Amino acid sequence: MMRFATPWILAGLALVPALALWRWRAHRRGRSSIRFPDLKLLEGIRPSLATRLRNAPFALTLLGLTLVLLALARPQSGSTHEEVLTQGIDIMLALDNSTSMAAEDFKPHNRLAVAKDSVRQFIEGRKNDRIGLVVFAGRGYTRCPLTLDYQVLGALVDKVEMATQDEGTAIGMGLVMALNRLRDSDAKSRVIVLLTDGRSNRGEIDPTTAAELAKTLGVKVHTIGIGTRGEAPYPIQDPFLGKRYVYLRADVDDETLTKVAESTGGKYFRAIDPDSLSGILAEIDAMETTEIKVRNYVRYAELFPWLAVPALGVMLMAGLLSGTRLMRIP
Known about the structure:
It contains ten helices and eleven strands. It is α/β, with parallel strands linked by helices. It has two domains: about 60-80 and about 300-330; about 85-285, von Willebrand factor, type A domain (Rossmann fold), CATH 3.40.50.410. It has a six-stranded mixed sheet with strand order 5-4-3-6-7-10, with helices on both faces. Helix 3 runs antiparallel to helix 10 (about 305-325), helix 4 packs antiparallel against helix 5 and helix 4 (about 110-125) packs parallel to helix 9. The two termini are about 50 Å apart.
């Protein structure tokens, strides 16, 4: 953003073409002519360098005047700054990456790939909220603490892979890991969004106990059960036949996930396909909003030195030429 602090001085630029016109007319009036009987006498005479540059001091003076006027008008470069006056929501995402998430009932990809895509879209739709990521299978791991750097968080979501160790699903441990990241948060609202396709069968803490801890800390938990109703194709590697599929019944613990959500003031959702999962996260996005007050202001930097210094140099050059090589004697 550019502006002039004293733009009225720019009216003085009209003097530049006026002075140029005055000089041209004065030069025309001062011309004299000498008659020669034969112009061949002048054919071998070439104009000297001083003759060619006789108007240079005046041109430099006009250029210097232009730069001085622009500098006096005080050009300024402005940059917009934004100050957030209210704090957003702190959200921890708890994503199940157990091997059951490899089921391919969310065509054309498996459950984990679709969940990652939906989570990434959820992150991109937020603004001024700190978001973190926990993954869990047989135990929970923090992949990203609360952050406003959504680009880094999105990259970490992309790198989530199926757990190759710690078999099982420890929903309670996943919740506790997320709570641990929210424990010291002073945000007005703290939320956990948990995505899983199974029931808790591992971990030292069960989901109900973790939910009671969340309620005590004032953390709301939204739970999402992922998986079609009925049987789902699950890929396995056969040493003789290669990749083949077996059909396993979906084992989402709707009852426990509902209890966990409702006991903390949250809501339970069931996603049976990619579209429903995206819609659920969009609904949670709309539910968990806060009014963000932002103050915008512009900070200006003075640019006149970039014009004043060249103007001084041009004026000195004009004076130097007029007083030395191009000096004119009346």
